[in-house]
Amino acid sequence: MSLKPKKVNFNEIWSDLRNTAEAVIKLDKVEKNVWNSSFSNVYNLCVAHPEPFADLLYEETKQFLKQHVETMLHTRVNPPGMNSNDGEQPDLLKRYYDAWSEYSLDEERVRIISGVMHSFVEVQAYNKTGSLKIYQWLFECPLLLASGEYYATEATALLQRCTVSEYMEKVIKILDDENRRAQKFLHSSSIPKLLKQCEEKFINERLDFLYSECKQMVAQENRKDLRNMYIILKPIPDHLKIMLIQTFLDHIKNEGLETISTLKGESIHIQFVEDMLKVHKKYTQLIAEVFESDPLFLSALDKACASVINRRPSDKQPCRSAEYVAKYCDTLLKKSKTSESEIDQKLTNNITIFKYIEDKDVYQKFYSRLLAKRLIHEQSQSMDAEEAMINRLKQACGYEFTNKLHRMFTDISLSADLNNKFNNYLKQENIDLGINLSIKVLQAGAWPLGPTQTVITFAVPQEFEKAIRMFETFYHNSFSGRKLTWLHHMCHGELKLGYLKKTYIVTMQTYQMAMLLLFELSDSMTCKDIQTTLQLNTETFQKHMQSLLESKLLTASSENLEDNTKIELNLDYSNKRTKFKITSALQKETPQEVEHTINAVDEDRKLYLQAAIVRIMKLRKVLKHNALIQEILSQTNVSFTPSITIIKKCIESLIDKQYIERTPNSGDEYSYVA
C-alpha cells in the first residue's frame, strides 16, 4: 500500500465503505481482503490530492448511522399500527424495553439453552450424593419423555405417506439431524439415550413395516435401499441378523444352487469352480460397497457358499465338489498354452473354493491320484507351479495334509539323480541296452496308484529284458534290502515305425508297445496268440488292443475281439503328423476309479477315527459318550466332518477289539483298556 497522496473518486470509494459498514452493523460476514482494503480506502480519502475528503467522509458516515437508527426506530420501536385508539402512542420506555428483550433473546438463544443445561451439570460439582442427579431429574428425564412422544407421532405420520424406501431415507436424515443437535446442545451422557429413543420409535416399533419389503430388496439387489436398510439396522445387531443377514444368506444360497444345478458335460469341473468363483466375487464386491465389508455379512457369504459347495444331491449320492475342485487343478497344471501367470492366478482363486470344502480328505485323495498321473506321464506344465500349489494347500491345511505330495516330488527328484548314476554305470561297464531307458522309483506308501496297484501278469518282451535286468542289478548293488516291483501298466515309451511310407514316432503305453513288437516277425496274429504270448488278462488285453485299433495302426477282422479274431498291421496307415501319442486307456478316468477313490476315503476315515478314539481315550482314561463324540469332531474337522453313525460304528469296533470298554453300571461311559 502506498502512503503517497493521490487523486481519488469519493463516490466510488464511499459506495464500497458503506457496504462494509452495513455488513458490520448487521453482524454479517466480512471477507478479510474487503476488511483490509476498507482501511486503505479511509486513509486514501483522508489524504486525497488536491483536497482531502475527511470532512465529507465524516458527514456521510454520520448520515448513514442516523438513517440506520431511524430504520430501527420505525421497525422495532414504532412500527405501523402501534398508535392507541385515542391517538396517543404507548409508553416510549415500554417500547424500548420490548425491543431490547426481543433482540437479546434472538441473539443469545443458543447460548442460553446450552448454558442452562450445562449449569445443571456444574451444580453437581458441589453435590456429594451422585453425579448428574439434578441434571437428569430436572432436565434429561422430561426431555427423553417428550422426545419419545414427538418421535412416535412423527413416525406414525411418515408411515401414512411414505413407501419403505422413502421412510428409510427420511429416518436416516432424522437420526443424523438429532445426533447433530444433541452434540451441540446436550451433555455427552444424554446423547446415546436420546438417539436410543429415536431408534426405538422410528425403527424398533416399525420393524414389521421395514420387513415387508426386505426380501424384495435383496432379491432385486437394490443397492441403494439395501444400503439404507443396513444403516438403519446396524445399531441393532439382533434385528440385522434376523431380517437382513438371513435373507441375504438365503439369496446367495439360492443363486449358487441355481448356478450349479444345470452343469453337465466333460468340463463340469471347470464350470463348477469358475461359476462358484463368479458368485463369490459378485457378493464379496456387493458386501464391500453396500455393507462396508461387515464381518456379519462376510460370514453369511461363507455359510452360503459352504452350503452350496457341500450339498449332496441325495442321501445316497456323495458330494462331488472335492472331486471337481481337484480336477480343476489338474486341468490347470497339465501342459497347455495358458501362461504361467494366468495359471498362478487361477490356482490362487481356486483355493477360495477349496477352503469351503468339508471333505478335504476326499480332495486330497483325488488330487494326489491326479498329481501321480501328471508326474509319471510327465504332463505337468511346470514343476514350479506344482510346488506352488502344494504350498498353498499346506498353508490351508497343514503339513500332514501335503506330506505324501512332498514325498512324491522327492521321489521324482531322486529318480532323476538315479537315472544319471545308472547311465554313468552303463558307460563305465561299457553296456549297451539297445533302448533308451528312464526309470522312476516310487515309494509304495506315498503314491496313490489306485486299483491298478495290484500287479498284472505280463511277459516282458525280450527287447526290454536286458534293460530291466541291468537296472535291477544296479539298484540292488546301490540299495540293499529294498524290493522292486515293476508297474508296467504305468510305463510308456516311444516306438519308431519304419514299415510305412513315412517313418513315425509314436508314444504309447508299455502293453501297446509289446503288442506292436509282436508284429516284427508277422503281419497278422489272432487275439488268442497275442494274449497268450504276453500273458495278459482278458480285460487288460482288450482295453489296450482297442486303443491300437482306434488309432488305425492295427485292423481287426471283426468288431468284437474274440479268440480267433485276426489282428493285422495296417500297411496303408498314414498320418499328417509324424510324431503323435496314443492315449492310454489307463489315463482316461473310469467310473470304477472314482468309486474306488471314494471307497478308499471311507476306509481311511474309519482307520483315522479309530486312531483318534484310541488317542483320546488313552489320554482321558474315562469319558462320557457325548464328550467323546465332541472331542472326535474337534479333532477331525480339519479333514472332514464324520457322521455320528460312523463314529458309533468305530466305537463298537474298538470295543470288539478290546481297545476300550463300557464302564460297568453306566451305559454311556467308556474306559480305556491298558
From TrEMBL:
<dbReference type="GO" id="GO:0006511">
    <property type="term" value="P:ubiquitin-dependent protein catabolic process"/>
</dbReference>
<dbReference type="InterPro" id="IPR036390">
    <property type="entry name" value="WH_DNA-bd_sf"/>
</dbReference>
<keyword id="KW-0832">Ubl conjugation</keyword>
<dbReference type="InterPro" id="IPR059120">
    <property type="entry name" value="Cullin-like_AB"/>
</dbReference>
<dbReference type="Pfam" id="PF00888">
    <property type="entry name" value="Cullin"/>
</dbReference>
<dbReference type="GO" id="GO:0031462">
    <property type="term" value="C:Cul2-RING ubiquitin ligase complex"/>
</dbReference>
<keyword id="KW-0833">Ubl conjugation pathway</keyword>
<dbReference type="InterPro" id="IPR001373">
    <property type="entry name" value="Cullin_N"/>
</dbReference>
<dbReference type="InterPro" id="IPR036317">
    <property type="entry name" value="Cullin_homology_sf"/>
</dbReference>
<protein>
    <recommendedName>
        <fullName>Cullin-2</fullName>
    </recommendedName>
</protein>
<dbReference type="InterPro" id="IPR045093">
    <property type="entry name" value="Cullin"/>
</dbReference>
<dbReference type="InterPro" id="IPR016157">
    <property type="entry name" value="Cullin_CS"/>
</dbReference>
<comment type="pathway">
    <text>Protein modification; protein ubiquitination.</text>
</comment>
<comment type="similarity">
    <text>Belongs to the cullin family.</text>
</comment>
<dbReference type="InterPro" id="IPR016158">
    <property type="entry name" value="Cullin_homology"/>
</dbReference>
<dbReference type="Pfam" id="PF26557">
    <property type="entry name" value="Cullin_AB"/>
</dbReference>
<keyword id="KW-1017">Isopeptide bond</keyword>
<keyword id="KW-0539">Nucleus</keyword>
<dbReference type="InterPro" id="IPR036388">
    <property type="entry name" value="WH-like_DNA-bd_sf"/>
</dbReference>
<dbReference type="InterPro" id="IPR016159">
    <property type="entry name" value="Cullin_repeat-like_dom_sf"/>
</dbReference>
<dbReference type="GO" id="GO:0031625">
    <property type="term" value="F:ubiquitin protein ligase binding"/>
</dbReference>
<dbReference type="Pfam" id="PF10557">
    <property type="entry name" value="Cullin_Nedd8"/>
</dbReference>
<feature type="domain" description="Cullin family profile">
    <location>
        <begin position="320"/>
        <end position="549"/>
    </location>
</feature>
<dbReference type="InterPro" id="IPR019559">
    <property type="entry name" value="Cullin_neddylation_domain"/>
</dbReference>
<dbReference type="GO" id="GO:0005634">
    <property type="term" value="C:nucleus"/>
</dbReference>
